[in-house]
Amino acid sequence: MKPKAQARLKRLRAVELLAEGKSYDEIATEVGFAHRGSAHRAVHKALSEREIENIDLWRTLESERLDSLLNAFWEDALHGDPTAARTVLRVIDQRCRLLGLHPDSSRKKTDDGPAYLVVGPVDAEELVRRDDQHELDPP
Questions:
Q1: Model confidence over 108-121: pLDDT tens digits?
Q2: DSSP letters of 62-119?
Q3: CA 100 to CA 102: how far, in whole Å?
Q4: What's the CA gap between 27 and 33, in Å, rounded?
Q5: Quick one: which of 29, 40, 33, 25 has its CA closest to 6?
Q6: Does residue 71 share a domain with residue 130?
Q7: Could you say which of 38, 53, 68 is where a domain stops?
Q8: pLDDT above 50: residue 68
């Protein structure tokens, strides 16, 4: 088998194992990568190049796992637990990456004004109206 085809098969197997809940260390051992970083890069490449036939199914599975984590820490985060709050923010960040919503870090960052983290119910129209009128002060 050609090296490129063999590498592609390893990447696909790595994604399958990740979908089964295996850690990157376990994936590296089972598939034959030198270390967990190689397994992580293989999964990322397979996903970014859309080599997986059922990528939407895989994203749904990962999204459900993130939902479970978010639910486990959400209440504690809302009640002021800083560790839970950091965990919630990391889960949200991971979901954004999974869904392709994470900003491209290679783009030049601009200051578009203050950013707000809103936790809980909010009247979006009121928030936009107040922000447009510059009534909100940045934290």
A1: 444 444 444 544 45
A2: HHHHHHHHHHHHHHHHHTT-HHHHHHHHHHHHHHHHHTT-SPPTTSPP---S------
A3: 6
A4: 8
A5: 33
A6: yes
A7: 53
A8: yes
Query: What domain count does the chain have?
Result: 2
Residues 1, 60 within the same domain: no
How far is residue 92's CA from residue 104's CA, in Å, rounded to a whole number? Answer: 16
> By percentage, how much of the chain surpasses pLDDT 70?
67
Reported pTM = 0.45
Q: What pLDDT is stored for residue 139 in this prediction?
A: 45
Contacts 24+ apart (CB under 8 A), 113-119: 114/138, 114/139, 119/77, 119/78
Domain hosting 22: range is 1-53
pLDDT confidence band for 89 (50 / 70 / 90) = very high
User: Is the same domain home to 10 and 73?
Assistant: no
Distance CA 21, CA 68 (A): 13
On the 0-12 / 13-18 / 19+ scale of CB atoms within 10 A, 101 is exposed
Same domain, 60 and 126: yes
My answer on whether 21 and 41 are in the same domain is yes
Other Cβ atoms within 10 Å of 28 Cβ, number: 21
Is 15 a member of any domain?
yes
